[in-house]
């Protein structure tokens, strides 16, 4: 792997590039992004050169698509046309069925596509916030359309770099990925935004909302997420999210109608069991 | 203020006692608790002496009730009978109407009662987890039945110690307190427990739940709270909590029926506004 093209040089694309460098990658890193992002990326040494998509993709062994989902869906046909034989295109989008399906329509021959979802993040966005260690230890899902990783040199090379980045990929089918993250990621996001909104609407002023502890801050922290990223997530995983919201609403209704009964105890104990699991060192 | 009786020497009572000591209190600190808690409190130097309620309360200028709510409600009549003229009894219960109403029935003459709610906490419980600095900077609500702090020497003395503990009390009526915390504290707790429970029920195994980021951990952190404390909260603030759950369910239903529409954008932006407010240094 000599040349990598990062398409969308923001928090995630920039962190992948910085991670590669820190892990010893000596090849060229090309960036495809807005002039402002390219300037910032060059200034931070995240990329070696900014190029248009048309020039960067054909030059690369690994094409890393780190744009918002709707942009990835939009450029996939062009990336597939431009990608050279033997290259690997992968992405960092938060939903996988729509992207992997679109890629299956476009990629032909020996230019491969493999969907990915690095589950790392932070509140800040943009290449200015990128960190070499952002992906280290975070779940990184790979979603081959067939459910099994292709045994091809470009995939083996990508996996070995992920390994050097401190990432142990989890292989899932695109459908399993989208079903799971609807509950483990998208539902917490919507629950958090809705909670923040309800608290704002039902308290009179900041002085009342200051009557709160760390619990409110933690449960509403995700409400800071940018809407434009989440719009794409909701639009490309609508059915699973609808199902997750429905289960959550049913659960809350059950709590509400049983506020005076012992069913509440069962929910607390079940909740605590998840916490024990999440806090166990993996 | 020469003698303080801590009734219920756990995390909160123990932290108040340690805070007093660290702030320079030279008087006696008596503890009323289980033999096991008293032993641990004596070993850590949290209290000077363990005594039965009957002996500790009449000896104290300040009686600090830090038991669970149902226990506070149970012992209030006896504490009121035992408290000496000029003394102040206060509490650390998380709901205030039930406790302040009960106290109003019991306290007569110059022995005063003033409800309180220190909004600090941590995951661990018991006097072993107590910290001198736990209350520092945390919201501490005082809820005089009349809505105004009584101008009595015992109250002035308590306020001056709170000040030395780094606490600036917020004065609210018991009803306003319970209405507000239903949204800022009790709803986040129930939303978190319900979320943890739904995620557990709708994923297949720990491997699937490991496909998650910090968002799931943050939004479900509260699900670790002990049920016995929350049972009392729910039982003594049922109507406000019912109202908060109802508003939350309605909001989630609105999100669900509008997953493809722009209403979602409004919720995200409203949610982000709360976050900006909570993160501003107070």
Your description of this structure?
The structure is a homodimer of 282-residue chains. Chain A is of the alpha/beta class. The first copy, chain A, folds into two domains: 3-172, 3-Layer(aba) Sandwich (Rossmann fold), CATH 3.40.50; 176-279, 6-phosphogluconate dehydrogenase C-terminal like domain (6-phosphogluconate dehydrogenase C-terminal fold). In chain A, 53% of the residues lie in helices and 12% in strands. Chain A has an eight-stranded mixed β-sheet with strand order 3-2-1-4-5-6-7-8, sandwiched between helices. In chain A, helix 7 (174-201) crosses helix 11. Chain A is globular, with a radius of gyration of 21 Å. Chain A starts with a strand and ends with a helix. The mean pLDDT of chain A is 93. Chains A and B meet through helix 7, helix 8, helix 9, helix 10 and helix 11 of A and helix 7, helix 8, helix 9, helix 10 and helix 11 of B.
Number of structural domains of chain A = 2
Biggest interface pair, residues each?
A-B, 88 and 89 residues
**Name of the CATH first level of the largest domain in chain A:** Alpha Beta
CATH superfamily grouping of the largest domain in chain A: NAD(P)-binding Rossmann-like Domain
Determine Rg of chain A (CA atoms, Å). 21 Å
Q: Strand-residue fraction of chain A? A: 5-15%
């Amino acid at each position: 792997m000599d040349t990598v093209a990062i398409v969308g040089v923001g928090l995630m694309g920039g962190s992948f590039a910085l991670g590669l460098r820190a892990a010893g990658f000596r090849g060229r890193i090309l960036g495809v992004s807005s002039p402002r992002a390219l300037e910032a990326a060059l200034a931070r040494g995240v990329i070696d050169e900014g190029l248009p998509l048309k020039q960067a993709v054909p030059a690369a062994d690994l094409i890393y698509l780190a744009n918002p989902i709707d942009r990835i869906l939009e450029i996939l046909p062009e990336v597939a046309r431009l990608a050279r034989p033997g290259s690997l295109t992968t992405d960092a989008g938060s939903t996988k069925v729509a992207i992997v399906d679109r890629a299956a329509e476009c990629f032909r021959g020996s230019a491969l596509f493999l969907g990915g979802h690095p589950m790392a993040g932070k509140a800040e966005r943009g290449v200015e916030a990128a960190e070499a260690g952002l992906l280290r230890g975070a779940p990184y899902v790979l979603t081959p359309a067939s459910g099994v990783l292709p045994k091809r040199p470009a995939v083996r090379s990508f996996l070995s770099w992920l390994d050097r980045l401190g990432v142990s990929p989890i292989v899932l089918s695109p459908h399993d990925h989208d079903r799971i993250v609807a509950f483990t990621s998208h539902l917490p996001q919507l629950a958090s935004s809705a909670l923040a909104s309800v608290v704002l609407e039902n308290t009179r002023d900041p002085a009342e909302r200051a009557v709160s502890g760390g619990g409110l801050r933690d449960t509403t922290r995700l409400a800071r997420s940018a809407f434009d990223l989440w719009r794409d997530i909701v639009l490309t995983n609508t059915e699973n999210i609808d199902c997750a919201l429905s289960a959550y609403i049913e659960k809350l209704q059950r709590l509400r109608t049983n506020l005076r009964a012992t069913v509440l105890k069962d929910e607390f104990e079940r909740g605590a069991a998840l916490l024990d699991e999440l806090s166990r060192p993996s």
